[in-house]
Amino acid sequence: MKRHPHVLSSVRRELNDWRPWATRALVLAFAALAGLTVVLLTWMSDVALGWFNQMEQQAWWAPLLWTPACTAAIVWITLRFAPGAAGSGIPQVMAALTPGVQPESRGLFVSIRLSAFKLVLTAWGLLGGLSLGREGPSVQIAAGVMHRVRRWLPANSAVSEHGLLIAGGAAGIAAAFNTPLGGIMFAIEELSRSVEQRSNGLVMAAIVLGGLIAVSIYGNATHFGVIHVQGPSMALVLPGLVVALTCGLAGGLFSRLLVVSLAGRSRDWFSRMRRQYPVRFAAGCGLAVAVIGIVSLGATFGSGNLHTRALLANPESSSSFYVVLKFMATWLTTWAGVPAGIFAPSLSIGGALGNDFAQLFAQAQPQTLIALGMVGFLAAVTQAPLTSFIIVMEMIDGHAMVLSLMACALIASGVSRLVSVPLYPALADQHLQRIPPEQVAKT
Fold first, then answer.
1. pLDDT digits over 110-129, tens only?
2. Angle at Cα 380 formed by Cα 375 and Cα 384, nearest 5°?
């Protein structure tokens, strides 16, 4: 029979060795710094999009010149100085976490330098009116900040580079969405690769602290407000099932389109142009995004958060063409090669899709179907149903919808798996091809 530990002896053992305490202090300090960096990205993104909206309102034709110029400049800088900053940022962190990747190769995917470029270029993309989110970039930015702490940890520290990357990436999600629980689930469902990483208490503490930094600055407000749901109704079963299946199919097609187009292996004219003249191709994508934005009366510019909030407040305010236009604008933005996340646009597309079915079925609770559309499309694109339902639940304070949100996420994710391979692992494999051959041989 095991004896209970002696309290004073246990305290003396803990205090005699300074290294564990130094490790904990450094990890938590950098977790707070990671959270502050994401808060800075949030502020920069909001200001940048606000400036673009002012310009677009004063001169409707200005995006036809401004958006292509910004897109071309961002892609040129990305290719010239920070190729690892292109795209979402989540695949880069997953690539850095891939078993066998050598420490010298991780700098291709995650570093303080890449975090700095990602911070500026993501905000610049919103200044240009591109259809992108800041949540995916937040993952890479925060992971780069957390990874930096490894240089100052004591020798033989129990905290691994993998643990730091997981903590940083998940803290980025938690801080970006104001959803600490969503950050923890993101670490478990998307980033973790072993039981040890999933159960590390210090890593989980770092994730929560990074998320709480954003809460302490922006307040404990929900991202999209509160949805007041009536009691369960059989009238919602059929529309909810249709929303889940449709979001699963549409999200799967969106994921497949991104994987195929970003791989760049097709022989069509557009893919050849992207390979041979990436800056010109980016300018063309920027022009197309500007045209789509003008056709949508400005609704598709930016992340889509403003449109989603307006939709929840007034479900009848959205055009039925918004889903297709936002879908195209987000795909073109990502295909251009700029640093761009897809979380927020996915929520916007899914919410609009749910609203379309609410109007079709003449539902008296359109906000419920909007929420189901948000979680369904996000789960289908990411194929991470638990992360998706927790994020949406926390963003709308939708605890009364736990079962319906979870069911919708699982159904949509299951349908998506019939259409597309998982998006982020596939893109991570593409990033792994950038490792020099001599370093691949070591793995």
1. 999 999 999 999 999 999 99
2. 80
H or E segment at 433?
none
So where are the chain's domains?
18-218, 234-431
Give the amino acid at 72: A
Q: Where are the alpha helices (DSSP H) in 315-382?
A: 322-336, 343-360, 366-382
Please give the CATH topology (third level) of the domain spanning 234-431: Clc chloride channel (1.10.3080)
80 vs 308, residue with greater confidence = 80
Taking a C-beta distance cutoff of 8 angstroms, is the pair 37, 147 a contact? no
For residues 58-83, one letter each, b for 16 or more C-beta atoms within 10 angstroms of the residue's C-beta and e for the rest, the string is eeeebbbebbbebbbbbbebbeeebe
Find residue 133's DSSP bridge partners.
341
* CATH class of residue range 18-218: mainly alpha
Q: Which two structure tokens, joined as six digits, stand for 131?
A: 């259809």
Question: Tens of pLDDT along 376-400?
Answer: 999 999 999 988 988 888 777 766 7
Place of tokens 């179907």: 369
